[in-house]
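The data are passed on as follows:
___
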Amino acid sequence: MTGQTSDKIHFLNTGHSDCIILESDGRFAMIDAAEDSDFPADKPHLNLQGYEEEVVDYLLKNCRGRDGKVTLDFIVGTHAHSDHIGGFDTVILHPDIKVKKAYLKEYDESKVFVMERLRWDNQEVYDQMVNALKERNVERISDFEQCKEKLGNFEITFFNGSQRKRFIKYGENISSVVTLVEKEGTRVLLAGDLNYKDGDERRIAKQIGKIDLLKVGHHGYAGSTSAFWAKTLSPKYAVITNNQSRIFPDVRFKLEKIAHSELHFTADENGVTAYIGSNGNINMRSGMVSTSISSGNSMPLGGKGLAYAVK
């Protein structure tokens, strides 16, 4: 491929959940770890398709170092929803995977509206991740607003990395961490599940400005991607961790008609890999690079049906 670079962002096909691997100059980091197979006994409705084994398999096939082990310089749990951090305990505890550092904000269920606390397993998946970090003696950073990381050729900045005072109780999505990845003039924004319910999109968009690639917030569901967000960021490419058929029409309209973005859907394209060059040069490729995945397979990893909870 012309202009191919070893610096990549892997958007894994994990159905309607998030798992993103940053790769630069032979170094790796991971943002979110997809939905897991565990669910509390009193919440059988959360018996959803899990992807933790597929995530581990992908890491082992594509991210091993010369010692045969996978080393993640850091991991980020964007917020306490199982479709984002559910698989982290499996990743952290795997004997062939070493995590050097973890970014994870404190979760306070008293700040989340009551129906989410009753219906979802936020506390359980948060506790599982925290306990796994403790078991493996991984350093955890819980307050990291605009903290910076260096990963190979990537310069990384975290936004919404501190708890904010809220006058209204929203869902946990409002706390989602946003990650800016920069390389020699190329800018990629990974929005987690950020939404516009308390003005966070407007606040963060003003801080960031124009970007080249956006991982769309909240899987393209309602409540994400305000017109101000789309216009201010104006990404050339937008990656949505979902099926095209499930995108909220208003979100698609704003991305295509206001931002004029080229859309990519991880669940339809069997994952998406972005090759990150300089000065806004990005090459987008459909499909995940794992040798265990057929390039012609457009089904989500695991291949199980479409039942899911919107988180």
